Structure formats: structure tokens, C-alpha cells
User: Fold Pyruvate carboxyltransferase from Methanosphaerula palustris.
Amino acid sequence: MFPERWNVEICDVTLRDGEQTPGISFTCDEKMKIAGMLDQVGVDVIEAGFPTVSPEEKRCVTAISRMDLDARICCLARARPEDVEAAAAAEVDMVSLFIATSDLHIKHKYKKPREVVLAGALDMIDLARDHGLAVRFAAEDASRTDPAFLKEVYRAGGDHGADLVSFADTVGCLTPLEMYAVMSDLCSTVSVPLCAHCHNDMGCATANTITAAAAGAFQLHTTVNGIGERAGNASLEEVLVLLNLKGGVVRYDLSHLGELSAQVSTSSGLPVPRNKPVVGDLVFSHESGIHIAAMLEDPATYEYLPPALVGRERQFILGKHSGTKALRYITASLGHPLTDPQIARMLTLIKERSEHKCSITPTVLKELIHLVEEGRG
Assistant:
């Protein structure tokens, strides 16, 4: 079903779609710092913002364009002359020119026949190309668009010189099976490379993005920590790990993902869930005695994703589910090789504390070690 090695690139939209998370606004300095970190990872395209939003937004996009990054810099634009002019003035490499294509959106947003909407957008592709910009022609609400009209949109965009055409699951309504069917059909009938832009309203954004890649999509859109409107977008860190482990795409430097995640969390004010895949605090933490005993023999028994791949380290946590082997390993690593009776007593104390919702912090652990070593436990 899947190709052995996927031909893809990443366009990260944290600085634009991620910033559309309700209540979030990045400063220009924060945007530039995040852009630099995305470039360290090797992200191919950075969508720096939406220049027509405000003079300050335009200034920030321009500043990122002048950072001399390896990544190509993109910005968003409506199919309006003033938006295209703002994109050109911001010195970006590519403009993401979008129109809504579903009948639902066209009826309520444009109140014009869809052929008129398309004709106006094609003129804007011509204008952008006249400015020397690469063009990504994006269909908003593509997942609820009449398939025949969507293909017409993409073919017309290609005829006018669009370098890419983008499929947006704007309301996150597709399942992976649905995404595979629609993207396979589009990739086999549209000559311009396809992009996948997935939202996470039903929790399928990352799965849909990877499935789109498997079906032939070329450019994959992500945000750091999966932030974005409503439930967010496909998570950069999850998509990159999946590309590495499942798609044979190994050119990205995943060791920077942890610090990038932390920076976006700090700048956005949105905490990263502790069990968030790849970057959460608990992702490489293990408490179960059964698990740890096996992992001491071979970490692969309970880790498919090696922590070192993403610049992380595993840790063994003590609690009510811990076992003798884990406790012996941890106490010995702290310089306290305990006897079998001491280990047994320590394990009893740890389980008792844990069952009363007392976390076994390093301080608590040292306290318990001293108790049993002195025979007071």
C-alpha cells in the first residue's frame, strides 16, 4: 500500500495557522527565533505569516524573509490584488493564494457563482507570477468541495502556472481512509504536486497527513505541538517521526524537536500535555515493573521510537506499579546498592506512598533510601 520511500517536503505553518489559535500572538522576535529553529530541523518551507493582516505582521514576514535561512519563506494571501502586492513587498519566495471552493463556503462568503470566484483567483495567480513569486494555489474546505469542481480548480491553477495546489481539510472532517481515497484520486488526475493541510477537529490530523503522503501528496503542512485554530493542526514532531520511521525520510534533524516544542510552548503560553507524543515529559518515562524489567534487557521491548532519535532520554519512574528490578537498578545508579530485604522494604514504602498520591520525587526517594539503610523504614 505504501511506497518504500516517500517524496515529500514539509511546510510548517506555526507562525501563521498556529498563531490563529484563539488568544495567541507571537512577537516578531519570537517568530524569528522559531523560524531559525525550524530551519535547524531542516523544514523545507516556513509559512511566516499573513502580511495583509497589519503593518507589523508585514514587517515580521519581511524580517523572516531576510534571515537568509535555508528554508523557503512563504506567506498567506487571499485572492485579492492588495494581498498579492503585500506578499511581494514582504520579499517571500512563495505565496499561498487561497480561495474557498466548497459550495457551502462560496454561498456564504462570496455570494457569487463559483466560476466567477475561480476566474478572479486565476487572475491573482497571474499577478503573483508577474511579481516573480512561486505560487501555491490552495482550496479552502477542499474536503467538502464537489470533486469535479475541485479538479477543475487545480487544473486551471496549473494551467496558470501554480507550482503547487493545496488540499485543505479545513474543518477536520476526514478520516484516514477517506483521505487516502481522495488524495489517491487527485494525485492520479492532477499534474501539479499536491499539498495536504489537515486540521485536528476529530483527532485525525497527523494520521490524515501521513496517509496523504502515502497516497502521493508532496507538501505536508504542520504546526509545532499541533497548535492552531480550534483543535489545531497536524503536529510537526509527530509527522517528522512518522516520516522517518515509516516513510524512509531521514533528512530532518529530529534532535531539535524538544527545544523547538518548548520554545513554541513558551511563546504561545500553551503548555505541552505531559503525554504528548514525541515531546511530552512522560513519553519516554516508564513505571511498570514488568516493562522496566524487560527494558533492562532490551529497550526495544517497550519503546518503538528510540528517545535518542529525538534528542530525549528515557527515565524509569518509581510508583505503585514498580518492581524489584527497576528499584534495584535505580538505587544502584544513585550509589546505594541495597540488600534484598532493604529492596523489599523500599518497594513496600514506595507503593504505600504512591497509593496516597505522593509522587516519588528524587527528594522522596533519597529520604526512603536513608530510612531503610538506617533501619528506620
Q: What stands out?
A: Residues 114-130 form the longest helix (17 residues). The mean pLDDT is 92. The radius of gyration is 25 Å.
